[in-house]
Amino acid sequence: MIRAYKFLMRPTVGQQAALGEMLRDHCSLYNAALQERRDAYRHGSKTSVKYGMQSAQLKEIRAFDPERQGRWSFSSQQATLRRLDKAMQAFFRRIKAGETPGYPRFRGVNWFDTVEFPKDGDGCRWDSTPHDPVTRVRFQGVGHVKVHQHRPAVGKVKTVSVKREGRKWFVVLTAEQERPEPLPATGSVVGIDLGIANFLADSGGGFVPNPRHGRSNASRLEAAQKALSRFPRVRRDKRTANHRRAVEKVAKLHRKVRRQRLDHAHKTALALVREHDFIAHEDLKIRNMSRSPAPKPDTETPGSFLHNGTAAKAGLNRSINVAGWGVFLTILNAKAESAGWEVIAVDPRNTSRRCPECGHTAKENRPTQEKFHCVACDHTAHADAVGATNVLRAGLVRRKAQPA
Questions:
Q1: Are 376 and 354 a contacting pair, CB within 8 Å?
Q2: 278 alpha carbon, distance to own chain's centre
Q3: Among 155, 298, 358, 363, who pairs with 304 as Cys (CB 3.0-4.6 Å)?
Q4: Domain residue extents for the chain
Q5: Is residue 196 very low, low, confident or very high in pLDDT (cuts 50, 70, 90)?
């Protein structure tokens, strides 16, 4: 199995400058390759530009510009071109599917923050010796950079990536390791129902409150964004030092919220995996749930639109995105796989409207957001707990139906 590790790097001033130049030059390569594809696409060239053609041009590009492109790893530049190729493939896939395509855009220097090395030892070298208290990673054109390795990287390192987050630099490793020993079996099964008022409810009647990290930092973020809005819109190279500090402050607050959300998701998922051998959850289409409603044209008044609840839906969409359901489910599946447990997603329809006692399903069974009251048998309970119970039952049925 493949596991990722992320460690903080501690580069010197000169190494920080070199890392910044590496990102800048890879960004320039990405944009130049995108421009070539755009020109071929616009002019309807019969010979479409693909990754193989652009990768074959790298030798000429490196020989023509040895100071900027020739000093970096050839393999990392190939990885940058593959990154563009994936974006183009996704663009054409969305066109065929009839979705909004979203053509790949040019990247600014501050928006291109990752360089990947596809193989350890080719342009980079992860050096973690057990007897050396200082861990280092070597990058071509940069040198040996100190790394704060807060835990051991188990397994054989496959890929190495450099990532910039604000003023900090990180190294991200992917390591191939043997499947770990499964956790001791507990014999416990659980169903979970994700929500807004509570982050989740389980079939045992337990609740995990929603931390609402975005709301707790909203006042400071609002003040920082208001201060940023006072600066006039000018070219990036014409911005003042105060403007750059205002931009950095907003980005720093967003990164803090992201770290808090990830920390909460990891701890919640770990608690579930340690206590239960089988976990069932709703198969939520989060992108569809957080989509804005389509406008409704007013047929009687041309040029005007009818009320479609956009403002109310915007608040719900914001709450769904802040809760981070997608991130949590991804982490939960990864931890369950490492532990050797099973996670099953079930159809979420009517899970909070079906009575767990008599099986009666009706919209009237849920008079409020929290209350469940069956109109057939008078069973009352918390609506989220009822949903979690029905999710568990559906998961167990699907588990038995699966072929051995």
A1: no
A2: 25
A3: 298
A4: 2-176, 189-401
A5: confident
